[in-house]
Amino acid sequence: MSDLIESRIGIIPSDWTIQPLAQSTTKIQDGTHFSPKTTDGPCRYLTSKNVRWGRLDLSDCGRISQQEHDAIYARCDVKYGDVLLTKDGANTGNACLNTLHEPFSLLSSVAILRTDESAHSASFILQYFLSPDGQRRLKDLMSGNAITRLTLQKIKAFETPVPPTPEQRKIARILTTVDNLIEKTEALIAKYQAIKQGMMHDLFTRGVDEHGHLRPPYEQAPELYKQSELGWIPKEWRETTVGNELLGIDAGKSPDCPDIPAPPGEWGVLKVSAVQPDGFRSTENKVVLNPVWVNPAYEVKEGDLLISRSNTYQLVGLVCLVHSPQQRLMLCDKTLRLRFNPREVEASFMFWLFQQPVVRRHIEVHATGTSGSMKNISQAVIRSAQIMLPPVVEQERITDRIEAIQDNIAAQRRTQEKLMIKKTGLMQDLLTGKVRVKVGDAEEVTAHA
């Protein structure tokens, strides 16, 4: 096995070489520098938004006329298997392989790189672009103040490690195998999310009966339902408002504190960023240095519902449930704390109910504020939100259903995170030659030191 040596781009094995992409490829070209005049037609038209991290995204793909396509394609004839590299804009450095067999047109924000596969693997070049070292070096080459960009000249001069061709292919296969596992996990997460959305609609309109089954829809069993201002709801449910079910609703204060988290045993005041779409973040707090500012009446506890009262338009009214705070934390003035009567309201149920359109629309309609994108909601707005409330035992059944599928989603996300960590480690080892792969007739994905 060869020794590792220091090169211009880092440590590599002595039997590897370094080449600029101009030598490793047979073509490097970007798309048209003029936006097409047509917006409809038989031909696909792709821009940087379609080049995602390691994959081609056709969900928002443009269309142009055959005439305009022919003119663009004559200059930039994208082929199956070409590397697509984003060279302009916020997504500069994103790269993927072209998986389309049909011809399409490109905007100048994307460049194509074509290789002679007998000598250089396009998949290897792609994986190097996506590696931590590749991304760091691409970013070092970017120029431009308002818009980051890579010029064709810089791309052509960009140097990559070049292992022997069979080793390139084997490295690319190993990393692509992990990519495929990550993609399958993403697909499972998307599937569970879709199931969850449909299930939540059914649970909050039909509920779960005493036998643990969804009630049949109103159209099949109208005798199980009653009319309400919110539509047809199960007879066992009642119409109410959030305010009617509250033990208390409070806003905190924001004393002048240093922007560092409170150490264990010290009081902290929460920042509005503690309320996040993925849940409560107790670490988003500021240490309270002056004991005079401490007010236990504003402390958040297990089961409290927190709402961002003042935030950007997208995040105002965001809700999270407090789980096991590890220290003593107080509300800030941009956050509301809701507490409910546990004999009548399951806090977890109320958290999921606040995600439903009936409550979300109420908050969006009544949010106020005209300065930029900042919005505010008052306690009165939250109190007046109309809701439908099942008996507490049914609330628990509904919550159990939602949290079971939420656990599946969380498990898949943990798997995805582990795979991504594994992929990063493999990139660091294989693309630098720190770990060499066995190359032979066998196709199994193995590596050894």
Please tell me about this protein's structure.
With 449 residues, the protein is of the alpha+beta class. The protein is built from ten helices and 26 strands. It has helices at 21-24, 66-75, 122-130, 132-141, 152-157, 165-206, 347-353, 357-366, 379-384, 392-430; strands spanning 4-7, 10-13, 17-20, 27-30, 43-46, 62-64, 83-86, 95-97, 105-106, 110-114, 159-162, 225-228, 231-234, 238-241, 246-251, 268-270, 275-276, 279-280, 285-287, 305-308, 310-312, 319-321, 329-330, 335-340, 374-376, 386-389. It has a four-stranded antiparallel sheet. A hairpin with an 8-residue loop joins strand 7 and strand 8 (95-97). Helix 6 (165-206) runs antiparallel to helix 10 (392-430). The longest helix has 42 residues, at 165-206. 34% of the residues are buried.
Structural Rg? 28 Å
Number of helices: 10
Roughly what is the average pLDDT, rounded to an integer? 92
Order of adjacent strands in the largest pleated sheet? 4-10-7-8
Shape: globular
Helix content: 25-40%
Uncertain segments are 441-449
Write the layout of secondary structure elements.
Blueprint: E1 4-7, E2 10-13, E3 17-20, H1 21-24, E4 27-30, E5 43-46, E6 62-64, H2 66-75, E7 83-86, E8 95-97, E9 105-106, E10 110-114, H3 122-130, H4 132-141, H5 152-157, E11 159-162, H6 165-206, E12 225-228, E13 231-234, E14 238-241, E15 246-251, E16 268-270, E17 275-276, E18 279-280, E19 285-287, E20 305-308, E21 310-312, E22 319-321, E23 329-330, E24 335-340, H7 347-353, H8 357-366, E25 374-376, H9 379-384, E26 386-389, H10 392-430
